[in-house]
Amino acid sequence: xxxxxxxxxxxxxxxxxxxxxxxxxxxxxxxxxxxxxxxxxxxxxxxxxxxxxxxxxxxxxxxxxxxxxxxxxxxxxxxxxxxxxxxxxxxxxxxxxxxxxxxxxxxxxxxxxxxxxxxxxxxxxxxxxxxxxxxxxxxxxxxxxxxxxxxxxxxxxxxxxxxxxxxxxxxxxxxxxxxxxxxxxxxxxxxxxxxxxxxxxxxxxxxxxxxxxxxxxxxxxxxxxxxxxxxxxxxxxxxxxxxxxxxxxxxxxxxxxxxxxxxxxxxxxxxxxxxxxxxxxxxxxxxxxxxxxxxxxxxxxxxxxxxxxxxxxxxxxxxxxxxxxxxxxxxxxxxxxxxxxxxxxxxxxxxxxxxxxxxxxxxxxxxxxxxxxxxxxxxxxxxxxxxxxxxxxxxxxxxxxxxxxxxxxxxxxxxxxxxxxxxxxxxxxxxxxxxxxxxxx
Length: 441
Fold this sequence. Notes:
With 441 residues, the chain is α+β, with helices and mostly antiparallel strands. The protein is 24% helix and 37% strand.
């Protein structure tokens, strides 16, 4: 993998030199490559075996405020020349935009830190199939009401990213990602329910055991049997930790530069203003070793840094790329390509303690639909989960809609738990909102 990355670094340097020779004012070149194995089993049979080995080199050139881009999967000298020439030709026909261009050189990560993101796992196809089967077999044997399966999937991938530009930056890093998932179907009387479980990590040895993933998938499916509907009304709502990250995901969209400079966010001009209750803090930590969303630089080569996103409930920063920053008269925050390891502070306890805090209300474990308007904050999504009474789960619920406005939802946050979900880019526990509109019968 390291040898391949070094070869690509050489081709990136060649592409930058070609762009300069063709008269480009500036250029940037990026390439990601991924290779690996994915296997799926269902009811003891092998459904799919997929080998992946792909990647493409993309080049963007800038000429007198104009921008042109092209890409190629062929890294031969001739193909590289054609791609660079194509980008230069395209730039001749695009409009002048004073905000386009490379990130400022002073902000670039010229010597990025090694974040220990690459953990190779050599796994034969037979071994991978055996792991997926073990996961699914455990799930099927968990309970006689587990009557069917949508299968188990094991995926092991490794790859690298290389980025260079005409400021003299040429950087890259290898990475890996391993995952195991299982989807089971439970049946009792006339009711049938489906649910899943999964584990993901940069290090294969840190994945949850296949037996446990299978048991969790079956347990989740069983817990949903005989779901009921709710009466329409306003009730407290708790988002389980693995669902709570979507709540903060809408916040990310609202403070992202693209929506801000287009004036398409309900959080325009919110910098420094209280968005959440003052107990809440959100910190970004891009340099955590082995973490899934760690990166020493963003997709424009800008160095990532630790920063406060929310401090005592107030918004400390927007999420900006170089382009959106220039549109807003600000400086990029190193968020081209996304966020990096958000950590949400907790003021509540573990999952059971959070149920006690909820008291009587709705626990949401699944969301459906995309009824979220970032322009005005209106929120309406289908939901399923459990009705909680006096701090105890009473029965499963389905076919309900929860609605509100994100601005109010953010302010009505009353608790964040310590039952952290760490399978994504946002580390958060379950959250409790004081009140939401729930539509059922």
